[in-house]
Each structure stands twice: as structure tokens, then as C-alpha cells.
Design a protein that fits this description.
Number of strands: 10
Strand order of the largest sheet: 5-4-3-7-6
Number of domains: 1
Strand content: 25-35%
Distance between the termini: 40 Å
Structural class: alpha+beta
CATH topology: OB fold (Dihydrolipoamide Acetyltransferase, E2P)
CATH architecture: Beta Barrel
Helix content: 25-40%
CATH superfamily: LytTr DNA-binding domain
Radius of gyration: 23 Å
Number of helices: 3
Order of helices and strands: HEEEEEHEEEEEH
Length: 147
């Protein structure tokens, strides 16, 4: 606790408390909460049976394709289909490295081989770059180039 104010609060007392808080905040480095756990590098998705969940490491995901209320998650040599919308999965995946490039596709930027016009090559798969996502995708690529 930095300060304690009682009602009615005179403005000069409020201002004093604000200045006290600001000076303390400037003196201390940004603190990470003690209980903060590192973000997981995996997720669990529902499998084909009722109580089955599959653990998928984010680093293994090549791309994700939306199929109405299902998504196909493509890993090297494996395709996993689960009942989930692409929008929900997009909110769950860390950004970066994942980026939505089309109304039906989310890709791992780390796995991109080449961008040719409106086509993104990932191994032997050609993924379309949607007009809606094109500008933000290319901006992000340019920013990565600068680093």
C-alpha cells in the first residue's frame, strides 16, 4: 500500500498521494508478479472421443485450416481435426509466431519458406494470402526484417 485516503478527500491531499505513488513507481523497476507463471508453450485440444485431449506443442504447428466449426491442425507428418472454430483457436494461439493470413488459415511465421504475391509457401503447401489480412501481414514481415 502506498497511501490511504479518507472521504471526503481534499484535492491537495489527493494530489499528494498521486505524486507519492508516481515517485515510488519511477524508483522501482517494473515488477513481475511473484505468482506469474511463464506462458505455456503448448495447448490441449479435444480429441475424437469424449474425454480425450491431445497436447500440441506450439513449435510443431505448421498451419491451421478452418473448416466451418472444425479446424485441421497440421503438424509435420500429421493432421489433427478438432471441433473448434478458427476464430477461437486464433485467440488461443500466441502471436507471434502465429498469424491469420486468410479467412480459413492461420500460419506459423517461423515455418514460411516463401511469399510470392498472394501465395505463402510452407513446404509443399501453398496457402492463399487474403486481401483482408495482406497489409497487416506484410507490415509484420517488414518489421521482422528490420530486427
Amino acid at each position: 500500500m502506498i497511501d490511504y485516503l479518507l472521504k471526503p478527500i481534499p484535492f491537495d491531499r489527493f494530489l499528494k498521494a498521486v505524486h507519492k505513488a508516481q515517485s515510488i513507481m519511477q524508483q522501482q523497476p517494473t515488477a513481475v508478479p511473484v505468482n506469474a507463471a511463464p506462458a505455456p508453450d503448448y495447448m490441449f485440444i479435444k480429441g475424437e472421443s469424449k474425454n480425450k485431449f491431445l497436447k500440441i506443442d506450439y513449435s510443431e504447428i505448421l498451419y491451421v485450416e478452418g473448416l466451418k466449426n472444425y479446424v485441421s491442425i497440421f503438424l509435420p507428418g500429421q493432421r489433427i481435426v478438432t471441433y473448434q472454430t478458427l476464430r477461437d483457436l486464433d485467440e488461443q494461439l500466441p502471436q507471434p509466431p502465429f498469424f491469420r493470413v486468410h479467412k480459413s488459415y492461420i500460419i506459423s511465421i517461423d515455418k514460411v519458406n516463401m511469399i510470392d504475391g498472394n501465395t505463402i509457401s510452407m513446404g509443399d503447401k501453398a496457402i492463399p494470402l487474403g486481401e483482408t489480412y495482406r497489409e497487416s501481414f506484410l507490415k509484420m514481415i517488414r518489421e521482422k526484417e528490420k530486427r
